């Protein structure tokens, strides 16, 4: 059977929405078909098992998180300073928070991975590769700070987005999302 890439993407986007809004238990073929507005049975033609659906959904979340080419180009413009790091991190966090279902689905996938060793291995490899790529990019682009800077930013800003999307009232009195990103970057010791 010839697969339609647009339909596959629509099914995965529907799976992301189902995960974000219903949790892993709500991710069924029928839920995906309904959300995607396709005939019942369509998702099962594209994904061989629930594990396959989960794995491919995790790949799709990464596709949707990727910045546009313009954002990548902006990273390489101008001096490599603390202000540039803050600007890039604000753009990253704003992009992640702008599509909450993608981020929330990622959290659901991580929770589901605690019960599914194959999904855990897949997610661990993907996230580790992404972190390594971010470290390499940071260092090769001449940004201040090194490996530990990227690790601290990864830890702090992922939790900031999690808090912002799940319990927004906790940090509301501390400032805007962008202001909190600046606070994190300001607290870093950036050599280089």
From TrEMBL:
DNA-binding is among the record's keywords: yes
A molecular function GO annotation: DNA-binding transcription factor activity
A Pfam family per the record: TetR_C_31
Matching InterPro entries: Homeodomain-like_sf, HTH-type_TetR-like_transc_reg, HTH_TetR, TetR_C_31
Chain residues forming the annotated DNA-binding region: 28-47
Keyword Methyltransferase: no
HTH tetR-type domain location: 5-65
Keyword list, A-Z: DNA-binding
Superkingdom per UniProt: Bacteria
Protein's name in the database: TetR family transcriptional regulator
Organism of derivation: Nocardiopsis eucommiae
Lineage: Bacteria, Bacillati, Actinomycetota, Actinomycetes, Streptosporangiales
């Amino acid at each position: 059977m010839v697969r339609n890439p647009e339909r596959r993407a629509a099914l995965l986007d529907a799976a992301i929405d189902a995960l974000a809004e219903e949790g892993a238990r709500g991710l069924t073929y029928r839920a995906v078909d309904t959300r995607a507005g396709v005939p019942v049975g369509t998702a099962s033609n594209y994904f061989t098992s629930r594990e396959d659906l989960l794995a491919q959904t995790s790949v799709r979340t990464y596709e949707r998180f990727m910045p546009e080419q313009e954002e990548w180009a902006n990273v390489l413009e101008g001096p490599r300073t603390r202000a540039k790091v803050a600007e890039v991190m604000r753009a990253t966090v704003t992009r992640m928070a702008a599509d909450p279902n993608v981020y929330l689905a990622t959290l659901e996938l991580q929770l589901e991975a605690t019960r599914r060793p194959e999904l855990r291995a897949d997610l661990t490899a993907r996230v580790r590769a992404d972190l390594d790529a971010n470290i390499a990019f940071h260092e090769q682009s001449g940004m201040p700070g090194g490996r530990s800077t990227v690790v601290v930013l990864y830890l702090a800003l992922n939790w900031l987005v999690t808090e912002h999307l799940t319990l927004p009232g906790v940090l509301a009195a501390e400032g805007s999302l962008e202001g909190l990103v600046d606070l994190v970057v300001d607290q870093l010791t950036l050599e280089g």
